[in-house]
Amino acid sequence: KARAKPKSYIKDSFTFVKLIQQQTSQSNDLVLSLNLESLFINTPVHETIHLAIKIIIKKKQQNNQFTKSMTSTQPKEEKILFQGEDISPNQDKGLIKEIIRQGINDDNPLFDDQVFIHYIGSELDGKIFVNSRDRDEKFNFSLGKGDVIPAWDLGVATMKRGEIARFFSIPKYAYGSKGEKRYQSATSVIFEIELLDFVGKDLSDENDGSIIRRIIRRGEGRKLPNEDGTVEINLKGIYKDNVFDERTVQFIVGLGFLQHIPLGVEHAVCKMLLNEHCQLVLKAKALQGLEKFSIPMNESVQYEITLVKFERLEEERLLNDKEKLEQAELLKARADDLVKNSYYELAAKRYQIVANLLSSVTFRDTNDTIKLRQLKIAAQSNLALCHLKLGDYRQCKTFCNNALALDARNEKCLFRRGQVYIAFSNFEQAIKDFQTALKINPSNVAAQQQIEHCRQQKIKQKESYKAFFNDTSKPGLFDVDEKV
């Protein structure tokens, strides 16, 4: 016979689940997740209780292991006893400086100075991970530009030439919360730094030291002045400890020499922000424009400059056709003034900008179309004039041809091209251009004079050729070696 089930057997699993829930607050999720309702049906009580307790204990062990593993992955706050000054921006004790050796003067490096250092980097246990002295190679960077870790930018700015200091830095000012290369997690570090030297930034295009800048006060915003823009500056020029020029002056960038602004100051102004105050040391070619003050070119001059205000010349890509036309008129007027003062190279540069501005401009309005055509012709014609004066005859001829393609009856360009042909000794072509110019304007006395000049030159040229070929005393273009 089949044995009868004892009364101690649990018939209702739901009743047992409620019993387990009273033992632990975590049993509900555990029991339900394991489907104990089905597991415990018709199971002896002592076996059921034993099994449930084992499951609950195992679950608690898993939870404890998970909590422990999570705790171990969190970076621990590193505490170190470090004597020194808190130089962190927020005074959060994240960057502490301790001076090991005092510097030799009271001068500190300024923003964007080139600084030269030796450094030793170590972990908190003293393990060195980098040492520039081992390589016998000093390191340099632009201060405050973000080229290095924040601890260096902040720390070196507080140092003096010749000073040695030790810096304790939390990850925030070092390699960050994720570390960098050698660090896989947040790590505090210690750097010992020696400030060997610092100098202002060389702004010269050739890096020849002719324009050295130090920023005394940083400027505002992000925009910079540009060529042909208008600037206003406060300046003080010092030569051999004497102030020779002190004023507030407004000028057009690129034309500052007209107001005795040296080339080096103009170059530096284009790299300044609004309200920036800087110190410049100029020498050699950077002194061009100071002829009025009779300062020898082999000397050096110091300037202090503050950029008070400026107005940029808008870039071509930002202009609509109407604005391009207006800017072209402005630049042509400036170039015309330069031609009057015989600054042909500077004038040609601006006439070329005018030509480029107008190359893609179109208008429906009749008046604007007429003005556009006149400006295009004037730009090409005046470019021809500038290059003729500069002795660049091939370029002059090119611009004459461009202008004549727009206006075949352009008297000035016909005359200028005739002058180019004279320079090339092509008197026949020169006469043709002068004759065409004379037809357009019969009262053009200069064209008539040039025609006569070319005729005389043709006669001399013909006689010269004749004499050359009739001179049998010269060893011969036409001699034949009979021995051959």
From TrEMBL:
Coiled coil: none
EC number of the protein: 5.2.1.8
Pfam family, one: TPR_1
Domain of life the protein comes from: Eukaryota
Keywords, comma-separated and alphabetical: Isomerase, Repeat, Rotamase, TPR repeat
TPR repeat spans: 411-444
Sequence intervals crossing the membrane: none
UniProt key word Manganese: no
UniProt name for this protein: peptidylprolyl isomerase
